[in-house]
Amino acid sequence: MSPRVGVLALQGDTREHLAALDEAGAEAVTVRRLAELDTVDGLVIPGGESTAMSHLLREFDLLEPLRARLAEGMPAYGSCAGMILLASEILDAGAAGRQATPLKGIDMAVRRNAFGRQVDSFEGDIPFTGLDSPVHAVFIRAPWVERVGPDVEVLGRAGEHIVAVRQGRTLATSFHPEVTGDRRVHKLFVDMVSGER
Ligand code: GLN
Fold it and tell me: How does it assemble (predicted)?
């Protein structure tokens, strides 16, 4: 049976992830309310703006329930802003009172807009552990990972910077595989939700 995978749909590029998950063999649904979060086997946190998403998570009373699901081991995948939110520590988290809030799904420190200080957006082919050929990676005001804990596996780098990681059944990328036609990263996540990888 296909796993039921939610896409957090408060803000950001929800539609692209729904399409990618569907093509990767999941039953893809949007998540905006607690009752919807309760029905999913795994969750994608899309790209967008991590400070705005943090604010909306609070407004929709989803912040603590989502943290609790992650702590219980619900599989999750975050791209770009989603990677920032899955971190245990956020560097350059934003202006006081409007900061991005870590959900602590992965033991890592992530710097917001890290590449953005050098170049706003760029693309490149990234070797990705477990995939047979490089992924075409699109970076948009992207974060990078500055520290990983002992249980975190680094799956990809752009130059010296860590841009793809996995801890247990939680996955994060600085880039946006949902905007390319390549579904291998989403397929990896769907298989992680099913317990096959
Ligand atoms: N810079 C954004 C943030 O801080 C992330 C950008 C993106 O998701 N494309 O949340």
Answer: In the presence of PdxS, forms a dodecamer of heterodimers. Only shows activity in the heterodimer.
